[in-house]
Design a protein that fits this description.
This protein is mainly alpha-helical. The protein contains ten helices and no strands.
Length: 241
């Protein structure tokens, strides 16, 4: 399985995604970065929910551990001021986005498509497919986090010491991915059907995550506002009431 993951990551080439190349070469403006990162916040807020749903579908506690540990990390180990939502909000504040400005943003379809894909694979699909999809997302996000942090610093928008959230994910998401992969190594080697299910999840997760960044890049100048407060929808709650 690890050979398949390595080949897939080479094929996905996440650092060649237009979102990251435009940040690296300076063609993405600060306003475009902030607007797209506000949208990415909505994916961050949602991410732990499909994981929690998938954990509930796994029959044995030892199978649930990597997921439950990940969900706990998403919530700051129980200290919500260190949750991924809170650290990402802090990064956005440092980039100049106020909570009121964030609250007024309407959810883009690119983000809703990503969130809905994760919900679908974790709730309705084979459990190995869901685990693999989450694993490759965590795996690729480690390198993407480092690239976004470097890009922000290189543009002079924040100092390296001011980069929160992404600095954590450079290392944490590699650990998370390894936890998922360990759960999948045995099933992948044991049976062709499990191997197929896992490869389907790896492909889907990689595709959906790269498509999210491509979509954010294409829509980076969009300004979508709303005149209502509170959750975006029942399926995708938001942090202010």
């Amino acid at each position: 399985m690890r050979s398949y993951v390595k080949a897939l990551k080479e094929r996905l080439a996440p650092l060649s995604n237009p979102y990251l190349t435009s940040l690296a070469d300076g063609t993405m403006t600060r306003d475009e970065l902030v607007e797209t990162q506000i949208q990415f916040l909505f994916a961050v807020v949602f991410f732990s929910r499909p994981m929690a749903a998938l954990a509930g579908r796994l029959p044995r506690p030892e199978l649930r551990m990597s997921l439950l540990e990940n969900v706990l990390d998403e919530h700051g180990g129980g200290r919500l001021r260190f949750s991924h939502e809170a650290t990402f909000l802090e990064l956005l504040r440092r980039l100049g986005a106020s909570e009121d400005a964030i609250e007024r943003r309407a959810l883009w379809p690119e983000v809703r498509a990503f969130n809905t894909t994760l919900a679908g694979v974790c709730v309705m699909d084979d459990t190995f497919t869901g685990l693999a999809a989450l694993g490759i997302i965590e795996d690729t996000f480690a390198g993407i986090s480092a690239a976004i942090g470097r890009g922000i610093v290189a543009r002079g928008w924040l100092a390296a010491t001011e980069i929160v959230h992404y600095k954590t994910h450079e290392e944490l998401d590699e650990e998370h991915a390894e936890g998922f992969y360990r759960e999948l190594d045995g099933p992948y080697a044991a049976h062709p059907r499990h191997r197929y299910q896992i490869e389907q999840g790896l492909e889907l997760g990689g595709y959906a995550f790269m498509q999210l960044y491509r979509g954010l890049h294409e829509a980076r100048a969009r300004r979508a506002m709303r005149d209502v407060r509170g959750p975006h929808s029942l399926a995708d709650g938001w942090y202010l009431g």
